[in-house]
């Protein structure tokens, strides 16, 4: 025979989310719940937890042992009625009834989302930092121009940079003159070739002057061939010097510009730090001094790195420059000397020595078969 569990006053008081008494549906739910519990267990030892729609469990009832009973604790999982489930789900919060019969209401789960970074704010911060850095550098440049500000000078490095810039101007002048010589020589060779063809044509048509026209035709053609050989040597000289001036030296000067920019930034932040150190030290200025010290250290490391890079590039540039110009100057001298001496073999030998291959006239133009 089934034994009925003792009644408990707390079990007879239905509680809602707003603290009011429930209607007859609540009485029916509590009565069904009480009958389903084991013998000797009252609602005073029962904790009911209800979750919202997102929960996978509909209802959980945790039961503890009845005082004075030797029975082991048991737990039951009960699915509430549809009316009670709708009521609990509609509350939007967790309802906990601990032992003692007092109802406590807890707020629903709170999800903390990560703070989303605003791209516009990031761009604004970058613009602010850029503007501040530009202002400091501009102020430093103006101070140096007016003679009020101090600047960091590496005497040895500055002297090497000045020599490089002066040499670059001189090499550019040599390059310009060599290009002019190449253009004029090309026109002269073209004229000599045309003159040789004209002499050859007259040699065939003038029987009285056949030999004289023939000698002149051979001489002009010979000079044209030697001129083309000399033109190939000069063009090779121009290409090598152009690579040295407009690529190798220009790349080094680009690094020098970066070094000078780093030097200006370093001096600008150094001046700021010196001004802050000369001012008062209090709670407001100490954070600024510390931040200025950090920025100064960052730009000092950048300045030291760029100075080291410039020193290394200048060293390698000097070695490469000597090697390239030595070969090109020997080529230019031997080719010019052999041409004006009329030594065709020596001129051709000079081109072979420097692995220069001449292009035949019209070699770049495709044949009629290739055009098809």
TrEMBL record:
A Pfam family recorded for this sequence: Arfaptin
A single Gene Ontology CC term: Golgi membrane
Domain AH: 152-352
Lineage: superkingdom: Eukaryota
GO molecular function: phosphatidylinositol-4-phosphate binding; protein domain specific binding
Coiled coil: 154-181, 289-320
Protein species of origin: Cuculus canorus (Common cuckoo)
Ranges for region Disordered: 1-36
GO biological process: intracellular protein transport; regulation of Arp2/3 complex-mediated actin nucleation
Keywords linked to the UniProt accession: Coiled coil, Golgi apparatus, Membrane, Phosphoprotein
Principal cellular location given in the protein's record: Golgi
UniProt KW Phosphoprotein keyword: yes
Cellular localisation: Golgi apparatus membrane; Golgi apparatus, trans-Golgi network
Protein name, as recorded: Arfaptin-1
Biased composition (Basic and acidic residues): 22-35
């Amino acid at each position: 025979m089934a034994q009925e569990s003792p009644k408990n006053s707390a079990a007879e008081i239905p509680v809602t989310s707003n603290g009011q008494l429930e209607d007859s549906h609540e009485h029916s739910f509590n009565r069904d719940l009480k009958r389903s519990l084991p013998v000797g267990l009252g609602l005073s030892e029962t904790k009911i937890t209800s979750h919202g729609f997102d929960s996978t469990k509909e209802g959980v009832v945790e039961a503890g042992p009845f005082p004075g009973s030797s029975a082991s604790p048991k737990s039951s999982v009960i699915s509430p009625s549809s009316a009670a489930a709708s009521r609990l789900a509609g509350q939007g919060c967790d309802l906990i009834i601990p032992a003692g019969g007092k109802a406590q209401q807890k707020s629903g789960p709170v999800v903390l989302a990560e703070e989303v970074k605003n791209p516009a704010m990031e761009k604004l911060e970058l613009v602010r930092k850029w503007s501040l850095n530009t202002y400091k550098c501009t102020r430093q440049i103006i101070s140096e121009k007016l003679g009020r500000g101090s600047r960091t000078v590496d005497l040895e490095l500055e002297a090497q940079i000045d020599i490089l810039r002066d040499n670059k101007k001189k090499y550019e002048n040599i390059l310009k003159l060599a290009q002019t010589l190449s253009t004029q020589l090309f026109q002269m060779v073209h004229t000599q070739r045309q003159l040789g063809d004209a002499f050859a044509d007259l040699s065939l048509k003038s029987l009285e002057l056949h030999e004289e026209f023939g000698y002149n035709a051979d001489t002009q053609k010979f000079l044209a061939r030697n001129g083309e050989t000399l033109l190939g040597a000069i063009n090779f000289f121009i290409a090598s010097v152009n690579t040295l001036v407009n690529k190798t030296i220009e790349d080094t000067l680009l690094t020098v510009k970066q070094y000078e920019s780093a030097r200006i930034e370093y001096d600008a932040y150094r001046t700021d730090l010196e001004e802050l150190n000369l001012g008062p030290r209090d709670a407001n200025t100490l954070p600024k001094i510390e931040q200025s010290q950090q920025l100064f250290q960052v730009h000092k490391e950048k300045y030291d790195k760029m100075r080291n890079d410039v020193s290394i590039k200048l060293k390698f540039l000097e070695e490469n420059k000597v090697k390239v110009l030595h070969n090109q100057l020997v080529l230019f001298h031997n080719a010019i000397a052999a041409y004006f001496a009329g030594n065709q073999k020596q001129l051709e030998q000079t081109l072979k020595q420097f692995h220069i291959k001449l292009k035949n006239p019209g070699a770049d133009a495709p044949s009629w078969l290739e055009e098809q």
